[in-house]
Structures are given as structure tokens and as C-alpha cells.
Amino acid sequence: MKNSGNHQIRSLYNAANYKVVLLQNGEHLSLIFCLRIASMVEISDIRYSNANGTDTVMVQLNDEIVAAFATNRSTPPDWNTFMSTGRFPTRSYLDIGSNVLQMRFNATDGLTIDYIDIDVDDRLITQEIAMCDVTCIKDFNPNWQHTVVSEGLSFAMQKSYTTKCSEISNVNIPIYDKLVKTYEIVAVMPQYKSLSNPRYENTSECYHLSLFLWSFNNIMLSNVTSGSIQTDKATSYISRGGNTSDPFITILLTFNVEGRAKGMIDADRGSILTIKCSQITEQTTIKMQYKGRDALSSIEEKVIDAPADQANWEIPDFTWTDANLNSIYLYINSSSYFNFTIDALYLARRPLLPDTVVGVYKDDDVIVEAVNVDLWWLTPNAMQLTLSNGQSYNNVSYFRIYKPAIWNEGYAQIFVMYHDGNVRLLPIPPEGVDWIPFGSSVLIGQANPYDERPYSAITNVSLDIESLRMDVLYADGGSAKLELQNNLVETRLIVSNIFFGANIDFPFVTFRSMYVSIGNCDVDHVRVNGANPTHIMDDFGFIMGRSFIFYRKCTSKHLNLSPDIYINIKRSKTK
């Protein structure tokens, strides 16, 4: 439909999508399609209709004629009678990027085209790529200086899993080297040329980020004696008093929540229980109590008066447990025959407060800010940030560093270090772009690769403001020195003087990112030691190497200008 303005579009009820392109004498049809990689391509079918005389159609891929076929007239003549060419014998090898399919002919009174089937030898091609909504680049040869002093064995392992949520770091690739002493991480702009800068989160498939932990709707209570309702998140058990005229009803709600073991905060996060009712004709008393990680709570009572139809209970932080089943009890009582409906009964996550930001340092060359996150996932632990000017800040969830943006006004964020060991780097935004988003991250420090959300908790960071050198101390007793370097092309972090404090068999660094599909990801390929690229979700087990380039070959609707990340092991030795 991209060039539908050049042709007549007609409606035919036997067409696949009820519409066809009508081609008349002297017209030709030219369709642009895109490939992710150089591929073998063949036309497997062209579906058409012809209620006039026989025509001969020439089919081209780019400048090569690949087929010719006669468009026989239907018997009896009917534009709604469609015919198929079937598969053409010619296979063509086409390059990555845009290609053109053309159909040329001399028609008597017209020809309709319903659809064209094209087979492409690429298991990862998508509709968005084929329609050129997502564009892909050829493999590039990076200017990567691979200087190594090595006595160690270095390799990356595949620990990624699939997801439909664009806000989950499902790409996890730990890198191992027991003897590593120095390595560097480099952030550069993507290799493809694009001005598209989508930079906000997309939670459309992220059900774990929903407002609700669970919900029930339209519970009819008037004739209930006992029963249960089950969803994938919770179960409700309903029982009435001693006889059907007894207005006393008990509702027991049981559910699980996810906590630190899953990298989540729901077991620590407070919540709000809401009940909405209709058909209330008189005062109704509802009592509530709950049991999570501690003993059964005291009863909290709410009274609903008509026409009011809602009651809310606030349940504090650190109530729920991820180790066992959680319970909520509702006791509902009315002075006469009980006959109303619960329209909605749900448990919602309490709103999180905005981050608390403290500007700890600012001059012409650098800005440093310390940030505290409401209910940080490793709460109550956090890290301490100590500056070379003697100032010290506690309870820091993460800190960030800005450098002047030469061609933009103000400063650009180039570095973030989190208490859990994750680091994010950004190059200075290109001219004309105010800011670009973070995407992939690198977990610096030893982390258990089997954790669902791996981390390496930091206790203290000492930051030299002049040199942007850092001494990092980990909770497991490990340590490292970091040096942040930045120019107009890249941001580089050099990690040296590495001392392992945890299990020596743990990885020393872990690459983390997001992949849903080609065109919806923060990374789609990795190159190791400059070899041919490997798709980031391939089941490669492990790959030996010392330089790793994590990048996108194809543009993305998610954080399109977030950087490519290079990790290069510079030095490994026994002493």
C-alpha cells in the first residue's frame, strides 16, 4: 500500500484481503522489499485475475528477468475468479538492503494482482524488515585494537531467554577469565544511519509491570453458600454463615508474589486493597486482615454507606513474602438480607515515589549526581559514594556523571553505576540530538550467572573528580579500579587491578540487554574476536574469545540510538 496512490485499488470479495491492484495498459508494478542479510530469493506464487484477453507478464528482480507467464482469461470471464502462477524455477541471490520486484506487460483491458509470495532464505526475517520499516546494515569491520597480554582462558556463555516484554533484560551473556587483570568497555553510536530516536519505555507486553497484582470482577454474592474463583494470579474462596439467610460472608484470598530471588520488589512493596460494590441499599461493614511474612494482622474495619460503593485498605511495605502463600481475609456483614455484587476486588501495587536526586558536584567539566530509589530492589542495602573533595554520601542506589555536550547546550549523561554492579555508558549525543537513551548494560563484578537477576553488590565507590578514576569495593570482598574516558566519538571505561572476592569460577563481567525480535531490541548480534557475527539469541553454548562487540545490524523501534557496546580483555596473567 506504500505506492497505492500510483495505481487503482479495487474491492473483490474473493481476494485474500478483499482488495486488488488493477493494472491497465502501459502500467507496471514496482514493489520495494528489504532483506536483513544477503539471501536466496524465489517467487513462489503470484495470484491474479483476468476477465479479458491473454497477456504476457515479465517479472524482474532488480534488473534481472526471472520469469514470464501468460495471464489466461477466466472461463467464464469473471474478475473474482483468481488463478495462481505457482512457483517459478529461478532462484536469485540478492544483497542486504532494498531490492525491487517489477511486473511489466502490455495489457488489453487490465489485470488484477491479489498477492505475491516471495520465499527468502532467512529464518529471522520479519514483516517489518520485508516492508523496509526496519532497515539492516551489512557486517562492518570495526577498527578494534586487539592488544592482549594473556595467560588466561576467556569465553562468553549464553544465558539468555525469550520474552515479549521490551523492559526486561532477558539477554544475559556472562564472560569468564579467572586471570583477568584489565579490560575495557566502550560505548559508540550504532553503525546504521538513522535519525529516529525513540527513547521511552514500552510496557505493552510487560504484565509484571501492571498496576495490579491480581483482580476479580463481577462476584455475585446474593445466592452464594460456598465456592471458589481462580485466576492465574490468585484464588478467592467464598463462604456464607450457617444458613442461606445469614448475611455474614467470608472471602479468603490467596496469592503468590515475586521478590528478590526473581529480581522483583513485589514482596517488599506495599499495596492497596480495593473493593467496589453495587446495589448497596444500606450500611455495610467489611473487616479485613492479612498474613504474609509475619503473623496474622489485626482487623481493620471499613463501613460502606449507600450511595458510596468503594473501600480501600493500605497495606505497608515488607508485608508480603515470596517464600510462601500470602492471604487476605474479608468479613462482610449487613443487617438484612445480603444482595449486592462485588464489581471489582483487586490488590494494586502502591505508587513508587520519584527518585531523590542530590547534586554532589558540578563545575565546567563534569556533573555528578547521587540518586536514591524508593524501594530499591536490594533494600535496605545501598552503597556509599565518597568524593576526592572529602564529601561522602550514603544510601546511594546509583550515581551518574555528565560531561559537556559540545554542540548542544548544557551537559550530556555518559555514565551510570548502580549499587548492584550494573554500569551503563553513553557517547556524547550527535549534533542535532538533545539526548539519546541508555540501552544495554554491563554488570561489572562477579555475579552468580544462575541468578534470574544477577548482581554484584557494591559497598563503596571512591571517585576522583579530576581524573574520573574510581576505586570500587564489593560486598563479597572484591575490588577494582575504574577510569572513565570520553571524547566526541565514544565513552570508554577501563577496569583494572581486579581482585576476586567471590567464587573464582563466577564470571568477572556480564553483558545484559533486551531482545524481543529483530526491530524490537537493544542488541541483535555479537562478534567475537572479529569473526563472523552470531545472532544474540542463538544457542551457541559458549564462545572462546577476548574481544566482544554487542551491536544491532537492524534499526529498532525501541531505543534506536542506544549505543553498541564493545568489551575487550586487555590483560590476563598469573602475577
TrEMBL record:
It comes from the Eukaryota. It comes from Sinanodonta woodiana (Chinese pond mussel). This is C2 domain-containing protein. Gene3D superfamilies: Galactose-binding domain-like.
